[in-house]
Amino acid sequence: MKVAVVYESRTGNTARAAEMIAAAAQELGHEVGVWPTRKVNLDFLKEADLVFVGTWTDGIVIAGHRPGDAGRLLDLPGIWGKPTAGFLTYAIHAGKVLDGLADVVKLRGGDWIGGNLFKRSRLPEGIAAFTIAALDEAQARLGVNAQADADA
Q1: What is the secondary structure of 40-56 as a DSSP string?
Q2: Domain range holding 31?
Q3: What is the CATH number of the domain that holds 69?
Q4: How far apart are CA 78 and CA 53, in angstroms?
Q5: Along the 152 residues of the chain, how does pLDDT read in single tens digits?
Q6: What is the DSSP letter of 77?
Q7: Which helix (H) or strand (E) holds 115?
């Protein structure tokens, strides 16, 4: 499968998570590209079978959480019908920010397959399992045989 990882990062934590997701997918034999939103390879994104979209959690410590730089995510080209998994990094509490990211993905036409929150102080905890689950779900939705893909 061709996997695109697109992210927004303010302090580098989300960029780090994006690179870890990309490495996990590549280790499983997938073709992977990873870019910040402002430098996305549009040809690669157009051909991608799975898209990961990530950003940081904005808001005060206990309330008002929202996807960081959501405006830049909304400027992404359409990802119509592509299985899309979201990921967010956070410092203390993330609230329901994942719901906001799901809304952004759906507005861009992505087929939301779920997402995950990653506490920045605990990276890479959970990255591999999240990546595998997203790849499995995307393959199921696309009707791809995961083992045949890995063997190719």
Answers
A1: --HHHHHH-SEEEEEEE
A2: 2-151
A3: 3.40.50.360
A4: 12
A5: 999 999 999 999 999 999 999 999 999 999 999 999 999 999 999 999 999 999 999 876 666 788 888 888 888 887 999 999 999 999 988 888 999 999 999 999 999 999 999 999 999 999 999 999 999 999 999 996 544 444 55
A6: P
A7: strand 111-119
